[in-house]
Please model this.
Amino acid sequence: MPDLAILFEGLLKTAVDPKVVAEIARIADIDTALVAQPRELHLVADRQVKELLYSGGLEEIPDAGASAGGIFRSNPVLNLRSDTDRQEQVDDWLRQLGLDAGLTGMERVVEGYRAAAARTTTQPVG
Model:
């Protein structure tokens, strides 16, 4: 799950990077203000998504079926240029991914990951 969070975060951060936005605007011959933020994430896996997820804390939903990916919509109210909004979007996609894969408990897994990441970044050096 941390690898997917980092991957999703990196994809979004790159897509809204001012240099990338400026280049897209240049190619399309439009103003940078007209370059839209990503509206969705298309994920296609070569196996069941539940095999890609760390199973600790996740439980299978009986008879939920299999998923090898999905299309996950972005929340249009979020400004993906903002670190906190981007993190909220990534967390939402991870929760959606878990449910789509027929798993419950992703909320706790995401919260645990974010809490661990916050502890790591706030610990004093030295």
In short: Strands lie at 40-44, 59-60, 69-73, 103-104. Residues 63 and 102 are 8 Å apart (CA to CA). The chain has a mean pLDDT of 89.
